[in-house]
Design brief:
2 helices
């Protein structure tokens, strides 16, 4: 399952790269791509694992930049 989300308050391309790298290390995450210019994130994971992977991805984002959020597109 692959889903796209908007990102709020993402103001640093380097932070976006760090976030994507961290999310890609989450067990169950097949792929993660963050488009800094479009302020979008794409996460791919198995359907059964998706909610857990998304929750852990939100934690990774908060740890790197506390004001940035993943929101429904």
């Amino acid at each position: 399952m692959k889903k796209k989300f908007k990102m709020e308050n993402l103001d640093c391309a380097n932070c976006a790269r760090k976030m994507a790298d961290g999310i890609n290390k989450i067990e169950g995450c097949i792929s993660c791509n963050i488009n800094f210019m479009a302020q979008k994130i794409t996460i791919e994971a198995e359907e059964a694992d998706f909610a857990r992977v998304l929750g852990e991805a939100e934690k990774v984002v908060k740890n790197i930049h506390s004001n940035t959020r993943i929101v429904e597109a």
